[in-house]
Specification:
alpha/beta, Spore Coat Polysaccharide Biosynthesis Protein SpsA, Chain A, 2 domains, eight-stranded mixed sheet, 11 helices, hexosyltransferase activity, transferase, golgi apparatus
């Protein structure tokens, strides 16, 4: 009887220990244990910044992980930047994070300026994609693979496209560039719905390269200061107290477009593998991780326009008066043609030496855009167009 009791006690104790083991550790979507990873709520607790000095040894990066995502791999890999070929000494790589279904936007970027033209400028472009979500009805994996076969400028990770997976796509872009394009001096991360001036940015990167030794770490772009955390549950950018405790984010860069270098990108990717995960990618990578590493941000806010209409007016004025544009980065406003028209007109402008915009002729003073007010869907009417001065 006593032997049976001891046996029963042993069985119960084993079951309890197994339960603690089985359910105390988080797993990813495939059931893999995340033993060594911090919980997602780490950003609700204070942390000590860890400075990265110029002479410090770089931390290793696990290529099979993106932050807290284990088992990462490329569904579409890309070796376009192999160091033993002619791309080994690039000035910069343009990393465009693109929704997998935005094949038309990617086509607009290619038509705006070809890969061959970019390479002649010392630049190279790559698009970063995730897995097609089950709700997507207008694109197939076969079509994505055909796009890669035709253009050779895609990478695709094995995580699904979703707002809360943007951090994975962002990190995948940086990790790919630091592991597969080490010869590139600078990395330019941007979103696919952004219009930008590749000629001005090439000149900026060339000037940076002349003073490279003075700035071992680089994060440059539009700096957001004192941005409040959104606590409204109905907002798609809602963040709970468990995810992030403070009411204000640290300074961070807009993901529209920012510039970094290899050393900084490697530090950010490595830090993401030990820091707590945060799903808003720009805030996490260029804000929380940069603050943790004490990497300063360089403000280039004057480059950016928040209105696509200003870029429309820039195109108009380049055509009419050969005026230079006041802005180098801005949204496309849902218009893929704007990406093509802006870059193509810029190329003509640079070739023909456009003039600086005269005093009193600023875009804010002269740009009048079309304001389109849609009628109710039931009316099936056409757009009503009236003139509107931008401020």
């Amino acid at each position: 009887m006593r032997k049976f009791q001891r046996f029963l006690i042993s069985v119960v104790a084993f079951a309890v220990l197994y339960g603690v083991y089985r359910y105390s550790f988080r797993t990813d979507t495939e059931g893999n244990y995340l033993f060594l990873l911090p919980k997602d709520g780490e950003w609700s607790k204070p942390f000590e910044p860890r400075a990265v000095s110029e002479g410090s040894e770089e931390r290793p990066v696990d290529s099979s992980r993106l932050a807290n995502l284990t088992g990462f791999e490329y569904l579409i890999p890309n070796d376009i930047c192999k160091e033993n070929n002619s791309f080994s000494e690039l000035l910069g790589v343009i990393l465009i994070t693109s929704y997998v279904g935005h094949d038309d936007i990617r086509s607009a970027h290619r038509q705006a300026i070809s890969q061959q033209k970019l390479i002649s400028m010392g630049l190279l472009r790559i698009f970063s994609l995730g897995v097609i979500p089950p709700t997507e009805r207008f694109i197939t994996q076969a079509a994505i693979e055909s796009e890669q076969k035709l253009n050779g400028d895609l990478i695709q990770g094995n995580f699904q496209e979703a707002y809360r997976n943007l951090t994975y796509k962002h990190l995948m872009s940086l990790q790919w560039a630091t592991q597969h394009c080490r010869g590139a001096k600078y990395l330019l991360k941007m979103d696919d719905d952004i219009v930008f001036d590749p000629f001005y940015i090439q000149n900026y990167l060339s000037d940076l390269h002349q003073n490279d030794e003075r700035q071992p770490h680089l994060l440059a772009g539009y700096v957001f200061h004192s941005k409040k955390v959104i606590r409204l549950r109905a907002n798609k950018w809602y963040v709970s107290r468990e995810e992030y405790q403070a009411d204000v984010y640290p300074p961070y860069l807009s993901g529209w477009l920012y510039i970094t270098n290899q050393r900084t990108a490697r530090a950010l990717v490595a830090e993401a593998q030990t820091a707590g995960f945060f799903w808003i990618d720009d805030t996490f990578i260029t804000g929380l991780l940069a603050q943790r590493l004490r990497i300063p941000l360089t403000e280039l806010n004057r480059w950016y326009s928040s209105n696509s209409e200003f870029l429309d007016c820039c195109i108009r004025d380049m055509k009419r008066y050969a005026y230079q544009c006041d802005y180098y980065v801005g949204p496309n406003g849902g218009n893929g043609k704007l990406i093509m028209e802006f870059v193509q007109e810029l190329e003509r402008c640079y070739d023909n030496a456009c003039y600086q915009r005269p005093a009193g002729k600023s875009l804010t003073a002269t740009c009048v855009a079309e304001y389109k007010q849609k009628l109710n869907a039931a009316d099936h009417g056409t757009a009503m167009i009236s003139q509107m001065r931008l401020k």
